[in-house]
Predict the 3D structure of the following.
Amino acid sequence: MTGEHSSDKAGKPTKFVNHYVGYMDLWADKATVMAYLNAHQGWFRRCAKPFPADPIGDSGYALGVGKVGAFGFYVDPRVGLNLLPPENDVYRIQTIPIPDQAPQGYEVDFNAEMRLKECPKEIEPGVMTAIEWDLDLVVTLQFPSFIHRMSGEMIQNTGNGVLAFVVKRMSSFLTAKVQADFHHTHQIKVPKQAKLRKR
């Protein structure tokens, strides 16, 4: 994770930057996994619970991540995510505006790339699909004046820590939910000796 500081005592917005790498293994061939991912209208909101994920058009969702903050300043952020159709087995998720949402004092720039690779296995059914993704996330916050009484370094370090915590928490949560939902909906019993990654 890296961060850059762009605020001053005049109250300019502060920018935080996070890069995250995650992975998930699903016990099925790539075609089955892609058919599941493409039908996100079925699994996305189900796997996001208890976090709200309100539909935006045909391929977008307004995802809430819960109340976060520090030093007495908290936000309850929602981010609009657009789940793009795959290109060459690569899926992308990008930020979209949330319709009719008033200015919230923050901006989110979310760009994720998810890659699929089919892996042969000696255990039946003999194939697994490995999913790996990269997330580049930029969050810009407009802090109230009392926050700017603190040092820029303290603001930056604390904000970076909070952002990294939220990203890791949401990624781990959603990965586990999607992995369980996929195997349940396809009635796939994962062999005990199979070690499936999830992060």
